[in-house]
Amino acid sequence: MSVDLSPITLAIFVPLFGAIMAFLLPRAASVIGLATLALTTGAVIWLARAVLTGGAVVLPLGGWGAPLGIDLRADGLSVAMLGLTCAVGFLVSVAALDSLKGAQQARQRQYFWPLWLLLLTGMNGVYLGTDIFNLYVMIEVIALAAVGLTVLSGSRAAVQAGLEYMYASILGALLFLMGVGFIYLQLGRLDFAGLTGAEPTGALIAALALMFVGLALKTALFPLHFWLPAAHANATAPASALLSGLVVKAALYIVLRLAQYMPFPSETLLTLVGLMGAGAVIWGGIQALRAERLKLLVAWSTVAQIGLIFVAFARAGEVGLPESWKAAALLILAHGIAKAAMFLAAGRIKDEIGHDVIRDLDRSPIRPTLAQFTFALAAISLIGLPPSLGFIGKWSLMEGAMAAGYWHWVAVTMAGTLMSVAYFSRVFAGFLRFDRVRAPVGEHQGWALADAAPLTLALAAIGLGLLAAPILGFIEIGYPFGVAP
Amino acid sequence: MADPLMIFDILLALSIVALATASLSVRDQFTMIVLFIIFGLLSALAWVRLSAPDVALAEAAIGTGVTGALLLKTLHHLRFVSGSRNRQPMTGVAPLPPVPLGVTLANAAFCGLITLGLAAGFLGAPAAGPGFDMLVAEAMPTSGVAHPVTGVLLNFRAYDTLMEVVVLLAAVVAVWQIERGLSEAPAPVMGVVWQGFARLALPAIVVVGTYLLWGGAEAPGGAFQGGAVLAAMGLLLLLTRAYVPQPGHRGIARWAFVLGTGVFALVALLVAGGGRVAFEYPLEHAKTLILLIEGMVTISIAVTLAALFHGREPVALTTGGRHDT
Amino acid sequence: MAEVIAAVLMTAGTVFFIAGTVGLLRFPDIYCRLHALTKADGLGLALIALGTALLAGSAGAVFRIALIWFFVAVASATCSHLVARHARQTGTEVQHG
Amino acid sequence: MMDAPLLPLFILLTSLLAAPVLFSLPERAARLRTGINLGMAGLKVALVAWLSLKVSQGVIYDLRFELLPGLEFKLQADPLAILFIALSAVLWLITTIYSVGYLEHGPHRARFFGFFSLCVAATVGIALSGNLFTFLLFYELLTLATYPLVIHRGTAEALRAGRIYLIYTLAGGLVLLLGTLGLWVLAGTTDFVPGGVLAYVVAVNPLAAQLLFVVLIGALGVKAALFPFHVWLPIAMVAPAPVSALLHAVAVVKAGAFGIMRVVYEVFGIETAQALGVTAPLAVLAGVTIIYGSLKAITQDDIKKRLAYSTVSQVSYITLGVALASPLAAVGALAHLIHQGLMKITMFMVAGNLAEGLGVKRVSQMDGVGRAMPGSMLAFTLAALGMIGLPPLAGFVSKWYLAQGGLEAGQAWVIELLLGSSLLNAIYFMPMLHRAWFRDAAPETTGAPGRPRIGWMLAVPPAATAALVLIAGGFANAPFSPLEWTRFIVAIEYQE
Amino acid sequence: MTPDLIYGLTGIAVFGIGLVGALCALDRLRRVLALKLCSVGAGFLLVVGAWRAPPGVPDPVPHALVITGIVVMVSATAVALALIRRLQTLEAEDER
Fold first, then answer.
1. Would residue A229 count as lying in a domain?
2. Domain coordinates in residue numbering, chain C
3. Given this structure, which CATH class describes domain E3-95?
4. How many Cα atoms within 13 Å fall on the side-chain side of residue B204?
5. How many domains, chain B?
6. D137: nearest CB among A386, A414, A428
7. 8 Å CB contact between B293 and B215
8. What pLDDT does A36 receive?
9. Any residues with CB less than 8 A from the CB of B84 and at least 6 apart, and which?
10. Taking 70 as the threshold, does the pLDDT of residue A26 lie above it?
11. Which residue among B125, B171, B270 places its CB closest to the CB of A144?
């Protein structure tokens, strides 16, 4: 019996089998983990080639086809998200090899890999899914694995944060499930294609609102962000990088897809989304300015950046939506790469210096130069300075807003940019000030494997800005859904 | 007008709502859990009324039975930990910072508004909605099973079901990683009568669980319900101390956890080929494959649920301590 | 004929259930309540099971009903025992009055 | 190799690629570092010379790379670009020599020279930008590369200055982003084209065009230290002397001034800008800055601060020349871009030498320093006299053309402004010269005579630039002199 | 007044009650329970959606979905409860 494997199924099943193997064989977990990541990346590249040459790929699982069965579908956007997940995931895994290598972390190491690979299964499943109930199951896979990663360190603060995260995650998923129920009531089917062109009835609006609020809770959109800073700041560095760089993107991606197939019924709602995003930009910025610890600052910056993505989403109103999602997608990619780099770098700095209190960074005679440099490079992309991918994302955001005459979104973006300069420069001052050090300063500390991965990510965040045109071209493949056969 | 069934429905609905409210507002946590269990059983009854016996079985066994057991176990743990050390025997958990009444009221009003909105949306939805009825009816003959719900779970939407088993796997991995070190509350001593009952019940449970699994192909029941019933056996074993998990059993436990997921995923992948895609079972083997999957998944579910109830990974207690990373 | 007998048995069973419930609500302490519940409900259940068995079509169904009755009876007895035992161990007082 | 279309890219890469290499060198590899620095700087000068030869022969260099649909990264080498990169290439070489001497035993040299290279790369990029979008990219890179240089000393004061610098320039960059977006949305292109791209927009929507002008000039004015955005410049004086020299003479301030030129000449077009009525206010603003900077300079005792305010004043000559909208004034402005650079870099290097060799940092300490360091002070004197506008020095040439341009434009007040400003220049420079040459030295500044107080690497660069000041003024009409090249540019910009 | 109407509204009410509990409950165990109530409410909605008037046979797909939802919820509950137990242990150790 010859087995005919499709890259779509492999992208989901390889990490699943990897997780199983890593759980069964704890001693070999790291090797299995890296091999799985490499294989998954291979599958995604295979899939990307297929999408490049033949457009969107649809796989009806079980041969039934939607709406009875479940279809997996890969178009440009989903493959871009898969690529982001695998590439960032691979580099974070490399960094994790180093940061979890001590005998002290034996237990963390044993559980990190199965949880992370399950997380990868869930995320890849989300990016390939076209069935909203299936998405619900997938976000639960993500939630459980992500909570497990959050509390990996086992400290009280981490467990406390993990519990809050768990509550938020369950509630978010249940709101989403309730929305699924309403969609079934109204339409009698659950695949994306069934949503296109549906009349905005009461039940459908209720469904949309429920699902949006649930996803906003999962992706930590202001004012539903309360759980995020503690969870991301207290996790261990590789876990933080995965949570902040990748996990929140899954829910964001679903929002993007929903908006794509079920257009928002009103301009007002879109404005509301933008306002929530603006609130996140401002509030996240203020809290980042006040944060006392480096990782907390980075976590608050995630809140602000998520807000910015929603602003990008709302940047040109209802009419501009068919274009606005691209700006949002660019920002999602940029943030995913840069934030992972930044959290890894912050973790390295904390490891080297021994603490991450921002005020006292400049007291340390130890300067992990490379990690600091990486942090600065990542900050460049997050602030949105050229030629980084973050800049290109911000450019398309502002361009669309300006062309449509939505000056308030331009103002929000600029305010957010200035605030990010202000809060990141607090950190730079800590890196570059030397007159508070008593002992002789040691530089170029630790050329560790753990430095290579974040540096690569940070350089990618900046360099990919130069490839923005091909990236944009790629994510448009196979869009919109309804048109594809 | 006075249709007795309708009166029954309304009474049942009212008691469900009342029990939900009561379980959230009652002060004592033990009462809260008991009220919740009654609530769950009545909900299951309501679902029987809505011609959903499979769902009712699952809700009674898993949603209420296992969840109730988990809640009670946690309550026992909380009372043990705080009762012996913090002198807070009844509250069970450290008090959270008090929320101002105004905030609570505002939240409640907010939720009330949402609920009203949802009710409005529900009333506006089509009365007898469109659905999958026709599609399922057409596809049933080629599904390999006779019971539609089993067909949906293990064939049409098998991918969902696989991922659901993955969720269970993720849960047990997460629970093993979360709880560690220190010994938990000792199991309560329950006396001779209980031991005798357990001994009597164990074989019966095995029979019922297997029956539910086997019957699932034609009648209500299936892997999840059967697995939950078998898990009850595990609970009994754990509670009677007939079985005490040992560190040496971890390896076999891991295999049991992943068995269902692994077999399910392997079968799903290996049937692809010859024009078929993943999850597309060849018609002549469909029933066999589905039964194989169901059997393995049942074992995994039973062991996993029992492990979730037990909680922490069985490690030697000498390595206990909070910084056991 | 069988229907009439079944109806009578089930009605009687329901009466016992109602009696047990009244006892649960009216009796002063946990021991008395258990007394009411176990006795009355046990009989009520038996009567209802008997009534249903009369209506059952096949021997298999009768067997299953008998099995259910048996296990519910045993389980409820065990539960009552556990509740009473717990109450006694935690020192719940017997109410006189 | 005769025909190398990628030549501008190579010039950019000489310093852009040097940066990562310099970063990764260990601190102690001083010789290797110096070798790379000087080699790259020398290579760049040679390449620039070649490029200018080619451009003067009429070869067109135009490199494009699409970043977003329709939006290009574009490098072009036009005569105006050549003017600016020639300045930066020559002065980079000189300043590099000076920095090597200045930082001989200082900490963090790998970092310093890495960012130094990056800073020059950004300047070259600014010069070669073929559209406002590319300009913006390098403009921001310049900010990022100069920030670590400004706070190089790592003291609390340096960091405070750095923060102010960063906030001003990044805010400026953000406004420039806004302006670039505005231009993109309004005109559909951001290309620099002689004569401008906005003629249609100006006709249709003059208000939007005026707004755009204000936004762009405001953004560029931050770096050009146009009043009231000049605040950061004197504060940034905490940077090491070579950094100040570079900031004032080539990189930051000049980037702003150069940007103003590009915007006025090639985004709006001089005629369009005049028609829009925005040039006159700009000229007035430049005039105000000239007088204000000079007045503030008089009151400063710190040498570097006095020089900084002098820069505020002098750079606005360029803006003034651009805003006067007359070809002759434009010649003056462009020539001043070069001349001011030469003069100011000399003075900053000498200021650094005074601090290094004698510990003199204040004007009041300058008594008798001329006798202690005659070579350096001679260079300083030449530059100062040039600033004041004494013929035949470089400053005179540019001021002369500015005045002529003012007359040509019918703005007689410019003459008075220039006279007044020269007077003020004399008021703040003459006392320094007087103290240096004619006062007796204070005891702590006199040491053993005859022994050189500073190494040759500190002494030669200011002497070389001072010589250039002399040459640029004295041989102003020679071929390939800045002035001649300037005339070539103006002919293009005024489309004659 | 058909069963679907009655139980549909019941489900929404239970969901709302759970929502109030999830937002306002003071102790951790109760919040978990409130979330479980929400999930039962969502289950009601789907089961009601599957219901067909008596001669009709209910749609099996939502039934399968609810079963999946129940299993998913018990997994999430188990993790949340494990966190609660762990947190309580850590807090007790801190206070000791």
1. no
2. 2-89
3. mainly alpha
4. 14
5. 2
6. A386
7. no
8. 95
9. none
10. yes
11. B171
- Say if D492 falls within a structural domain: yes
ipTM, 2 dp: 0.88
CB contact under 8 A, A151 and E83: yes
Interface of A with E in 142-201 (CB under 8 A): 143-144, 147-148, 151, 156, 159-160, 162-163, 166-167, 169-171, 173-174, 177-178, 180-182, 184-185
Please state the φ and ψ torsions of residue B83, each to the nearest 5 degrees: -65, -40
CB atoms within 10 A of CB D299: 10
Per-residue pLDDT at C8 exceeds 50: yes
| DSSP conformation class of D5 | T
Residue D256 lies in a domain: no
**Chain B contact set for A14 (CB, 8 A):** none
User: Which domain range does residue B218 map to?
Assistant: 146-325
One pLDDT digit (tens) per residue for chain B, 325 residues: 457 788 889 999 999 999 999 999 888 888 899 899 999 999 999 999 898 888 998 899 888 989 999 999 898 888 877 654 444 444 444 445 566 778 888 888 888 888 888 888 888 877 656 788 888 888 888 888 888 888 888 889 999 999 999 999 999 999 998 887 555 566 667 777 878 888 888 888 888 888 887 777 777 777 888 888 888 888 888 877 778 788 788 889 999 999 999 999 999 988 887 778 888 888 888 888 888 998 899 999 999 999 998 887 876 544 444 444 3
Question: What is the tally of structural domains in chain A?
Answer: 1
Q: Which of the 8 DSSP states describes residue B95?
A: P
- Same domain? For B174 and B271 the reply is yes
**What pLDDT is recorded for position D1?**
43
- Residue pair C17/C61 in contact by the 8 Å Cβ criterion: no
Query: Domain residues for A449?
Result: 266-485
pLDDT < 70 positions in chain D: 1-3, 442-453, 480, 495-496
Give the domain extent around D331.
Answer: 278-303+315-496
Farthest CA pair distance, chain E: 65
Point out the residue among A62, A125, A154 whose CB comes nearest to the CB of B158. A62
In the predicted structure, residue A480 carries a pLDDT above the cut 70: no
Residues in chain A: 485
B207 interface with C at CB cutoff 8 Å: no
In terms of DSSP bridges, do strands D71-77 and D61-68 run parallel, antiparallel, or are they unpaired? antiparallel
In a domain, D451, yes or no: yes
Q: Residues in chain E whose beta carbon is closer than 8 A to a beta carbon of chain A?
A: 15, 18, 22, 28, 31, 35, 38-39, 41-42, 45-46, 48-49, 61-62, 65, 68-69, 72-73, 75-76, 79-80, 83-84, 86-87, 90-91, 94
Domain count, chain D: 1
Dig out the tokens for A233 from the structure. 């700041």
Model pTM score: 0.90
Could you tell me which chains touch chain B, where touching means 3 or more CB pairs under 8 A? A, C, E
Looking at chain A, the whole-number percentage of residues with pLDDT higher than 90 is 53
For residue range A362-393, what is the model confidence (pLDDT) as tens digits? 777 777 788 888 999 999 999 988 889 999 99
Asked if D265 and D197 count as a contact pair (C-beta separation under 8 A), the reply is no
Contact: A148, E22; criterion CB under 8 Å: no
Flag if A61 and B129 touch (Cβ within 8 Å).
no
Identify all chain D residues contacting A434, using CB atoms and an 8 Å cutoff: 107, 153-155
Contact flag A1-B255 (C-beta cutoff 8 Å):
no
* Whether A192 contacts A203, CB under 8 Å: no
Q: Do B197 and C74 touch (CB under 8 A)?
A: yes
**Is there a cis peptide before residue D392, judged by omega within 30 degrees of 0?**
yes
Contact B118 E12 (CB under 8 A): yes
Q: Which of D68, D108, D184 sits opposite A472 (nearest CB)?
A: D68
